[in-house]
Amino acid sequence: MKKIEQYGQRKDDEWEWFPWFPWQPPETRPPFEIRTKPEDIVPFFFVEHHPYAISLLLKISDGFKVDTFQKMGLKGSSKDWETLVTGFIEEWEENNSGIDMFHFDSDEDVFCVYSQYIDDISAFSRLLRMSCNDEKLMHDYFERGLKRLNKQN
Description:
The chain has about 150 residues and is of the alpha+beta class. The chain has one domain. Helices cover about 35% and strands about 15% of the residues. It has helices at about 65-70, 80-95, 120-130, 135-150, and strands at about 45-50, 55-60, 105, 110-115. Strands 1-2-4-3 form a four-stranded antiparallel sheet. Strand 3 (about 105) and strand 4 form a beta hairpin.
């Protein structure tokens, strides 16, 4: 298991340069501000990778929404969370800006989705957390995620 701050972390030279600032090195990016309050996304939480990105994490051992996953015949593993969030991301990309904005860095102990688009993942985190209050919506996102993953394979 990695240390929590290592999830979603890349080496400095592996981060993407934003196309609208090709002449500036990433370390000149101004400090970002996370507008989402930690209490609004519990049990999810953020790890900052300044100046590059932010990770949204969930400890699998917390057992968050395991009962909902079990009703779907699943365990609530980080892989299950990745599938569900893949469906959520697909809808997010359709309704907001861009594709390939979010990446996963999960293992058996921690679910992790990260992005260099700080404002997007901040807003994304609030909506994802609210969606977890609706079992049908979680199921729909999981099914959508499965379809997207099957298309990619």
